[in-house]
């Protein structure tokens, strides 16, 4: 059966219609998982209590407002009138909440589907985006589709595409910026190989990359890490290209300056535009019209920076950056158990749970693939591999500096697409080695891994999508006591 699956996959890649059909099929699979049962639970889960209500008042007034005491029951019931006219101090930029507001405006602010709609849309669109990236980096359609499949069934990506908080939005915008970085790499290598010139030039693909990363930073400030890491990558990769072509490396410094300006100016402009509602208004928190908008906005950011760097309160689900890699502490977004069966639709007794836990087969395989890519760079720097590593390190390494800060596993959702791409890249290398050495069993092992990832997805699907199950099913999904 495995051999037949391998042969079928190979045959499909030779059909010119199979690749676009595969993209559509995987996007549809991801959409079903991300939109199915999306309205459940019909309450504000975890940090939705902040971002949904903030998004609603942001859409009304251009800046966030405070709410009455205990406003959630009324808001969840459709009564949206519990806001006050007093400005609220919030520590994250507005762009992510504007995106959430778009879904609420389209579907309805009194609907749980409306709260989560935009997040689910972008979480679904991340799948064809990953496929496009993987194809450019790997050059093989089948393994590009594999990357999309892995992201479609990756648990952390699924949960964060079904929850109206900021991290899933950050993941998509970072991934969009990464796509443009891949296009920039193709463009710059081609240009340098063709011209072999030391002349400085603006790299046009860096402009949409900068806009994407400016949007990402306008969702959460951690988007700035990607802007910095990708900017550094353009300098390093330029040095590698010049060395290979025998060109003097000194002008790479000048080109690096051009790249920095090309990235920073559009990113900063995009970020500031995200604050336009606050800037044009007169009653946002800290807004002092008589002083203009620049100085008050800077002071706002100073306050927010102090908050973020000093955030160290204990939380039962906190997990530092090293814990993310080993899946030490998943976050329970929602849990309800009914022993009487009064609220159960299909079972005599039931519970519903939503837990932000990755697909463990993908998570651990992704970590192994990242380590493999890292080791390979010590022998020879390969630009595509270094770019994948740069994306991963931008999403993980800065958080190592904040081990005492209160952080959560769902921050690591930005790593999910890089894991999917790294696995597909590594498996393609493994498969090609089998072709050269006439070892067809390597392809079978790859299929077995994909089956394992799918089985793992089916095993945890109920706590990713909030399905009603028996209590014992939830118990066997909680592998360790500290997961509860």
Determine the number of helices (DSSP H or I, runs of at least 4 residues).
Answer: 20
How far is the first residue's CA from the last residue's CA?
A: 38 Å
Helix and strand element order: HHHEHEHHHHHHHHHHHEEHHHHEH
The major pleated sheet works out as: 3 strands, antiparallel
Query: What level of helicity do the residues show?
Result: 55-70%
Number of strands: 5
Shape: globular
What oligomeric state do the depicted chains represent?
single chain
Task: Estimate the mean pLDDT confidence.
Answer: 92
* Approximate strand percentage: 5-15%
Poorly predicted parts: none
Q: Which structural category do the helix and sheet elements fall into?
A: mainly alpha
Strand order of the largest sheet: 3-4-5
Q: Radius of gyration, Cα only, in angstroms?
A: 23 Å
